Amino acid sequence: MLTTSDQELLDRNALSQQAAGKVHGWANGARMFAVLRGLQERGWFEYLGQPRERAALLAFSGLATAQFDDVLAVLDAHGIVEQEAETVRLTASFAELVADDALMGLDEILDASALTVEQCRAAAAPDPTPMTEQDALVVARASGGRPNEITRIEYEQWLEHLPELSDALRSEPFLDVGCGVATTSLTLTRIVPEAQVVGIDVVPAAVDEARRRAETLGVQDRAEFRCLDAQEFDAVDEFGTAFWAQPFFPEPTRARTLAAIYRALQPGGLLILQEMAVPPTDEARLPAYTLRRLAVRTTGRPYGRTAEELITEAESAGFTLSRVALADSERYVIMQRPH
């Protein structure tokens, strides 16, 4: 018969095993991410852009046969590849993820995920972790996506909910503040042939990529990108509309950035703000949300600012509320510089 103290020890062990199970589950996810990252660095997914004979993939990998078989078994078990006879191919969903015309590619997702892992690790330190230029480029690519046909379709649907922006693009220049790699600006120039856009960003690598994308798309005559701190932007009464990528601006920069946007807009001009990353109502999504928030706030940026908070912030800079639009379940705050 168990003594009371023995039962207490068993109960404590059962609790510790529950916690251990959670840790093992998190570790399995980390291990799978490490496999994907390693294969990405070695070019596996680009090579598997088309079905490959098993022998050809083995030769490409440079691995011993037993190790190669173990890697394939992991990819197969996780729904990344499928094998038929001697042919190895990506599953349908992963084939689309690595396609050149994917909205967000596997490379961007893995690079951004690796960055957030490091940011979460840094959260144990007392001081915020400054982002490097390369870090900022990774975030810009993962946030903006690619200016391709899928993006065009999505933005055409987006503009249906923002008719004032669609109308203004045809007659007044558009300012993209914190443009990153300029997916928004470049997509709008493709949709609206009359559009003239100016994007500004403080990250040189992101601006360089935005310029290259504009040349590739053949819209460089209508899309100008400048590398500068938005707080120092000195245009006056020049733009009909502006979009501010506000989640990427740390608190100390926000008031002066809004003041610069206010000056740059014409009287009656519109500022569009997107509500992003609001706390989920579904408790099942809360763990992932708290991790993303931790990673972002570690860099000194805000996270999860609501539409109401954005309205108050813009009003403090002199803007007045035009309306709050709903597009694809996301809220967009449309503020106006008074006439």
TrEMBL record:
Q: What does the record list as GO biological process?
A: methylation
Domain named Methyltransferase is located at: 175-269
Q: Name one Pfam family in it.
A: Methyltransf_25
Alphabetical list of InterPro entries matching this protein? Methyltransf_25 (IPR041698), SAM-binding_MTase (IPR053173), SAM-dependent_MTases_sf (IPR029063)
Q: Which UniProt keywords apply?
A: Methyltransferase, Transferase
Q: Mind listing the GO molecular function terms for this protein? A: methyltransferase activity
- Protein's name according to its UniProt entry: Methyltransferase family protein
Identify the species of origin: Kribbella kalugense
